[in-house]
Amino acid sequence: MTEIAPSAPAARAELLRSLHIPGTPLIVSNVWDAITARIVAEAPGVRALATASHAVSFAHGVSDGEGLTVDQAINAASIMCNAVEIPVSVDFEKGYSSDAAGVQANVERLIAAGAAGLNIEDSSGPAKAPLFDLEHAAARVAAVRAAGEATGVPIAINARVDVLAGGGEWDDMVARAGAYLAAGADCIFVLGLADEHMVAQAIAQIDGPISVIGGAGYVPLKTLAELGVARVSFGPRTLGLTLSHLQQAAARLTALGDYPEELGFSY
Fold this sequence. Notes:
- This protein is α/β, with parallel strands linked by helices.
- It has one domain: Phosphoenolpyruvate-binding domains (TIM Barrel).
- The chain is 43% helix and 12% strand.
- The protein has ten helices and nine strands.
- The chain has helices at residues 9-18, 34-41, 53-59, 70-81, 100-112, 134-151, 170-182, 196-205, 221-227, 237-254, and strands at 26-28, 30-31, 49-51, 88-91, 117-120, 156-161, 187-190, 210-213, 231-233.
- The protein has a nine-stranded parallel β-sheet with strand order 1-9-8-7-6-5-4-3-2.
- α5 (100-112) packs parallel to α6 (134-151) and α6 packs parallel to α7.
- The longest helix is centred in the middle third of the chain and has 18 residues, at 134-151.
- The chain is globular, with a radius of gyration of 18 Å.
- The two termini are 16 Å apart.
């Protein structure tokens, strides 16, 4: 059965933070609206949810990379957070502000909307490059932690490091991970760990829980657990999974084929 979290915002945040266990990873299938949040939350074994900014943006007809306004992003997050009882981690992109003070103000609003956790990126551009300079990027993570302290909700921070995905150097990735943990991050979300060796090396060199994105052709989930990963998400790939099934069903129906059994799915 689905684990039901305490109803208080602070309790949900504490629960979410506690679920990031190296070797027993939190698996979060990303969602983008109220119905996907509810359906995934009801799946056996699901303990928390995560949104995907790409999927949320596309569902609203805009591009990823803060194509939504901050008001739209917070409203979308509120709809998902309040559709379920388990904790929700929100992909909050770059915090919808160019400065740390603005990030803190926006995160305080996000917490008020029901978020138990969030992703915050360190790239300033849409293509995972260029990056904010290290000091400023760490200050933005610290601003998120300050928002949690100001609201009394210890929001779980999954700090994303875009160095490798943007073509940067390994040592810079490790240095940034350490700086973000020191600034208050609970978990480091490393993009660009292409294989098992890189995952193992990152876990060995970063002194904190590691989060990765999974998908077809990537390191198997059981192997990620054995290596000591603390969290696995799938980003917009769950949207792709859903849309692929929908498109295939539409083609089958248009061709006067058999009714897919899923047409009888009860929700």
